[in-house]
Amino acid sequence: MSYRELRNFCEQMRALGYHRIISMENFRRPNFELVADILFWLAQKYDPNSDISDNIDEERHRIEFIKQITTLFVSKARLKINPKRLYMADVYAVQEILKISTFLYKAQVSPPADEEEIHDFSLPSKLSNIKSHKILAQEITDLATRLYDQLGKEDEVKLAREKALQFLSNVSRGGNSQSEQSYIQKCIQTILKQQEQNIQEMSKYVVNLEREQKQLEEKIKRKTKELEQAEKRLKGMTSVKPAYQEEYDRQEYELEKLYQTYVEKFRNLVYLEHVLDGQNKQAEIEQKKKNQILQGVRGVIQDAEMNELRGGDDDGNDDQLEQLGGDSRLQSSNKEKRNNNDFMRNQKGGFNRQQMDEDVEEGDDIDDLDGGVDEDEEEEEEDDGIENLDDDNEADF
């Protein structure tokens, strides 16, 4: 709630004739007694015949009081009031009370309507919106009941009005009666007391504000000192070199070198595994070729035996054996070496030339050994085949 609304509320209550002095500081904290007193006074001013209990000793009584007040102004005055805010009894409750006080203040200040305006009033000819007309009819009935209630109190109000007019006429005529002067003095004294109370409350409020201001200034000074000390400490910590920094830098440099070595060896290992897989595949292919040649030799030997048993020529058999012997000599091709060399040329980084040459030489030595072993095995198999043929021929003869 703004300061302007709170000020307007205080002025409206003073204009309506509220018997207590309302300060803007009364609502800084919840004050249910003051709010209940204001609401009860406004309800009595709006509808003196309203049956509202002013008992607020217990919680259920306070809740019932707020319900009665809200029901009264919502049903009769058509004001939207939030009962929860009224029960809070703080600054937010003033916003809801301000609606009621504004409604009554406007009714008090507004001039009476002219006769021409009253006679010019007429209902619209077209009843297009039935809902709005129902609301208007309800408002008319409510106003009529209020007017009837006010006319019923005319006897009491008439006496008070006549007394007030008589008092004003006597004062205007310049009468010096003791009663009038005493009444005026009493009114002036009450106003002065109210103003003195307001001044005292305001002075207390100013003193409290000054005290709070001094406390805040002291807190600001203390916090600024702490901030300066923290900044000095931070500068000292940043300027001082931490312990074991040199050893940490050295270990970090060594770790980087070890990582580079690890990467290089890992790449070499991958390459060597690739070469080994190629050599194993080549050995499997050569083994398959050897098995095929051995099967051919066996077939030729079996055919030769069958021909000898049938009395065939030995020249054809010798030619076939020579042909198979020539084919059985495995050609130690350098196909694997060429493949390895091409793969090494395509590699980019991670291997030095010396390691590549050493790997190629090792591969060549392995191939030479495998080729020599394979040739020895083939020669032994051919000799065994020839001896078996000689034995068979001797047995036939």
TrEMBL record:
Residues 357-397 have a biased composition (Acidic residues). The keyword Coiled coil applies. One of its GO terms (biological process) is cilium assembly. The keyword 4Fe-4S does not apply. Residues 308-397 are annotated as: Disordered. Keywords: Cell projection, Cilium, Cilium biogenesis/degradation, Coiled coil. Residues 192-247 form a coiled coil. One of its GO terms (cellular component) is cilium. It is found in: Cell projection, Cilium. It comes from the Eukaryota. It holds the Pfam family Cluap1. Belongs to the CLUAP1 family. PANTHER family: CLUSTERIN ASSOCIATED PROTEIN 1, CLUSTERIN-ASSOCIATED PROTEIN 1. This is Clusterin-associated protein 1. It comes from Paramecium sonneborni.
